User: Fold these one by one.
Assistant:
Number 1:
Amino acid sequence: DNQVVLNADVVFDQSKIQQRFAQLERNLKFQNPFGTMSRDVGSFNYQLDRATQRVITLGTAFTVLASANRLIRDIVSSTVAVEKSLTSVNTIFRLTSDNLNKFSSSLFDISRDTATSFEKVAEAAQEFARQGLSVAETQKAVRAALLLSRDANIDVAESVRAITSATNSFNKEALSRLQIVNRLASVDAAFAVSSKDLSEALIRTGSAAADAGVSFNQFIGLVTAAQQISQRGGTVIAGALNTIFTRINRKDTLDALDSLGIAINDVRGQALPTIQVLQNFAVAYAIFAFCIKGGD
């Protein structure tokens, strides 16, 4: 009998346990853990994307503000530089406000046409103004200098020196500054010599060439020929020509050439031009070299 009672109690206890589990499951409303985890991850990614977008937007805004700040500083700095340059030029010209505005407007046009900063344009204008040029002449000279600077790929200051040297050295030919620039550009385009080489030669040797009676075109021709043959560059060629020009008309040099049978005077006993003497020397040298090699 005891055995029967025990079994009945065990069965009853199992039933209550099952009921308890069923009730617990209903109370907890048990759901799929993977579905919940997936929804949570999706929500986290969405919030992360929004936060990232806000950071990017904020960074872009800061970049735009920084660029605008730099732009404003550059504009202020450029304005100050322009005013300073115009003031420096006007200390020479003494222009009225209206005339100064017209002059500055023409310089801005040159700056735009030659793609050069206004500061460089004003620097060239100031340099030409110091040479005693009028306002109109200064405008033309500045445009010529900026064109040469662009074509020869040289600094504006060097361009000004080259044009100044050419106009001062060969002033008897009355060449305009624009004519000088155009001739240099034409030779640059037609022969194996650059406007930069020609400009360097003008700066270093233009005066000596003019003193020796060499014309502008003859000087450019000499530099061009030397550059095509030697490929040594304007500076080296200018040094060599300067030595020739400064010594060709010395008495001892002329006596030495005369002793070698090189004609230095015409039939009337007048001194031949330097270029003619150099050509006579070239012919004599070629004959001499041919004889040395054993030619007939």
Number 2:
Amino acid sequence: ADQHRLLTAERAKTLAEQGFKFSSQRTRSGAASTIEKRRAGIALARSEINLEHREHELRASKRRLSMLWGSSDINYSVAGGELFHPIDIPLYETLAQKIEDNPKLIHFSKRQSAEKAKVHLAQAALTPDLSLNIGTRYYKTPQAYGMVFGISTPIPVFDRNRGEIESLEMRVQEIVAQQDHERIKLLAILYGHVQEFAHAKQSLHILQEEILPEAESVLKFITNGFRVGRFSQLELLDAQATLVELENERISAAEEMWMHAFHIQSLIGVNPFAAATDREKDGAAQKTSQGVSHE
């Protein structure tokens, strides 16, 4: 995004230089006062300041990206990526089904399993251990031997494990409640990102397909009219500023679209673009097969 902001700042400076050139020509020919030229000089100076600011921002962004890659040096000139390429994600209902893959919910599930295992061990300790005794016995009177056997089991007069089991079961219920609360919270966050993603994508589409082409046309028209004195310098400066502002809005909309998409990915634990990519491939394959069948 910062690369595109730098390009926009460079274009703003080019437009300001063009305006300063036109104003200088008009001043020399006597068609305009020196105020017009001075006003154009101010606009040019401001564009140079903004360009320098964007250059510093880009260098800082490159440094941060290099550090994420494990390097303190900037070993690249341009970062690749389709910032303005419109992307698609599944519907909210489909994404919500994958919320169980969220690391926080997985953590709660593991804690539940551990506590349930403790409950099973404590319950197993309640089961009495049966003892079977078998042996022989000598009887003096009939002077004979006899077989003797017996079964013994402990009598649970006082059950010490019962309280522990109830405590463990309450702990499991507490973890389940915490997980349910976290699930509701994550689903609300997910819904918010899905809505903001849709808004950013729609804004990007309108800016690219409708507003920016119109702003380009208006600027071209006013620039040509300014040369022959049909429009004032203020109208030219306003058209230039509007175009630059809209271009920055386009960059911000694309940046927000990707940002919310990556937030969605972090919430559901899987790539949300996979389904859209598969649909695009299927659509391309279908078009290809249809084209072959018509030959």
Number 3:
Amino acid sequence: EVDIGDPLFQLSNEVQSSQLDNAMEQYQDARFKSSAQSPQIVAQRKQIEQAKSQVVRDKTNFERYSILIKTNAVSKLDYEKAELQYQASLSELAVLEKNLEDLRSGLNLNLKNAESQLRIQQDYLGDYFITSTRKGRVLQIYKEQGELARRGELLAKIGSGEATAKLFIAEEDIVHIQVGQSAKVVLNTNPEEPVDAVISKVYPAFDLTEQSFILEAAFAKDVKHLYSNTQIQANIIIAQRDNAVVIPREYLSDSNTLTLTDNSQVRVDVGIQSDSWVEILSGLDENHLLKSVD
């Protein structure tokens, strides 16, 4: 018995496993490089901290020169140099901060790409594990361990749902069949115990391969020891009468006459017929002794 998602087969996947390992390594590397502990990010942040310190120094120096220039304590050239240095420090800090932003964006993009590749490889690896798509019973396995399995080949057969009997009906009998009729089904695995069934489906087209019409019959109750593809025979009840007079079919000739033990013949009217029995409507009474037709 299997349920949906239960593992059935594992295909050889050495190459795919190697590709998955490689994708995992690339993902872990990209994840580390995008984290706060990344050497690239740490180095960039150190440069930013140094640049900030330089900005503080240059700002202090520029503010001092701004005060001194008012009293002509410094030359205008020195004042302008201090101002330019301060502006240059601010520009350098802005460039470094932008570089850090770009670095983080690039590393995060690499992480997303590595994560996407990892998922793809994981999905590919999942293709090497064949699981059940339905709840049921494994009826047959078509491959042995180590055997080559090609795309599109059947690996196993799983039966699910209620068991049904597939019946083949001759052309001349299909007009008597309809959904809902009762049937007695005899399984070759247990011929001594006929099983009750009901016609559940009548296929509308003639099957050229089987040269028959096809029916399906649902069992009226659970059948013990039921095996898939078991050969069966079925008698479909198309009519039913109580207290009917019936005789074995082999006593009736093709011309609907019966031969008596004194070799005389009587013509009879027949009713319901099966493979083994024939209903006699008239022409025969309890005083007649029958002789089988050779």
Number 4:
Amino acid sequence: DRDEWIDNQVAKHAVDHTLQELQIGAKTLRVASHSTTDGGIVTLRSDITEMKHAEYRLTDAIESMRDGFALYDKDDCLVIANGKYLEMFQSLGGEIEVGMNIRDVIRMAVETGILVPDTSDLDAWIDERVEQHRNPEGDVEVSFPDDRTYVVSANNTRDGGVVVLNSEATELKRVEMRLRDAIEAIQDGFVLFDGNDRLAAYNSSWARDFGDAVDQIHIGMAFDDMIRVFAYSGKVKDALGREEEWIEEQFRMHGEEVDFERRFDDGRVVRVSRRHTEEGGAVAVRTDITAIRQA
């Protein structure tokens, strides 16, 4: 009631320093009071109505995002987060709130099974995750125990904080898995290079052509490096004893859409068809035609 409110204001007035927000009609006021050296009180009143409106608009915008959003300050404490970000943890029994340190958020994620340390030294592992949080480099994919998949993107703010976006990629991951299964089921060799000429996908049939050198092949590998491994694998008949010359031949025709035959040391003959992709990469299919050539 009014008397209680007056009593509260008198009590606050007696404190050396107070800061409060008051709603008066449609206006929002910030009132700061300071004690003077002679025992008096100085009160400053600021109209922060527009600032509060801007704050509400920002909060609404963040809350309406489809992705999880969180902002951590330079001391690694959570400043603001939307419902999607909080829900990501709450769905597995975790609770986070504003003011919580990222170290505690990570520990809670471990306790709920969201994150699984690959070491028995939990504290050292958390230290590494905190350092990654402070100095983010690229996106990180996180798989939850309930089969959901999120892509976590973090970036530093100008004042030393970190803004985090969590995008659910569960359905995209399922499509990716089905695509991988389909590629693996192809009897012919299949390989895909992206627009940066790096290995993006391949199946076991294609990889077997490398023989014992297959362990050197990996996703993200540059075409130049891959073709050099292939040349020195000892499997390509045309490359034996003339590896560097053969590598140069592959470089010259790499950017072309071509069909050609390749012979292996075990007598196999394959036809390779290579075509461009829309993103500027290349896809190649290798078909065994040994029986046709021996007929």
